[in-house]
Write a structure and sequence with these properties.
alpha/beta, 9-stranded mixed beta sheet
Length: 218
């Protein structure tokens, strides 16, 4: 497996995993630069607007050696825009790491290795990117993976609920609903879920609770 492939990286950092079934665990993050979407409430604009640096896979693996046994999350931006992500997956899995991929739902998961935990964000209408979603990805997730809906309004909630019901997503994988904190209060979203008895998990961003006010590297 080649280790000289170049990958454009926004940041590498060690922190607490904050918004998945692995929330609370120590995690090494590899944030890829660049994104093909422009969500209205994006909280990582710096991944495609800010500075970035080219790393070889061997350089990334060398940095990761400082954190033996720690799981790895590949995030962005959008990691699947760069072909170098695929040999990186293989090297991380071969090293025995638990590998999480956070992806924006617009690009196919077909070639992502089966052992990678896929956390797919389905963009709701409030993001203005919901028409970019690749629905065929529902066929590439299983029970270890997750589909995440970030909810900013009742309209978003109803849209997400219809998808969960129509496609039977809760039987395929873990489904989470997370509120956009500046637009929707967690108690209000919790109330909707309780009223509808929808089989999804309410998820808050743990890192924003631990480090309020920080905007990156957390």
């Amino acid at each position: 497996m080649a280790t000289d492939a170049l990958i454009e990286i926004c940041e590498l950092f060690y922190s607490i995993q904050g918004e998945s079934s692995y929330a609370g665990y120590p995690c090494f993050f590899i944030r890829f630069a660049g994104c093909n979407l422009r969500c209205s409430f994006c909280d990582t604009r710096y991944a495609y607007e800010g500075e970035h640096k080219s790393y070889t896979i061997s350089q990334i693996l060398a940095e990761l050696e400082k954190y033996p046994g720690i799981m790895v999350e590949i995030t962005g931006g959008e990691p699947l825009l760069q072909e170098g992500v695929y040999p990186l997956f293989e090297h991380l899995l071969a090293a025995g790491r638990t590998v999480l991929l956070e992806t924006n739902g617009s690009l196919s998961l077909k070639n992502v290795p089966a052992d990678v935990v896929k956390i797919m964000d389905m963009k709701c209408p409030g993001s203005s990117m919901h028409d970019k979603m690749d629905y065929s990805n529902f066929g590439f997730v299983d029970l270890k993976d997750e589909i995440k809906f970030v909810i900013s309004s009742r309209e978003d909630y109803n849209w997400a609920k219809e998808l969960v019901t129509t496609y039977g997503l809760s039987a395929r994988t873990t489904v989470t609903f997370s509120p956009v904190m500046t637009r929707l209060s967690p108690p209000e979203l919790a109330g909707w879920l309780l009223n509808d008895r929808l089989q999804v998990r309410l998820r808050l961003q743990l890192h924003t609770i631990l480090w309020p006010g920080m905007t990156r590297g957390y």
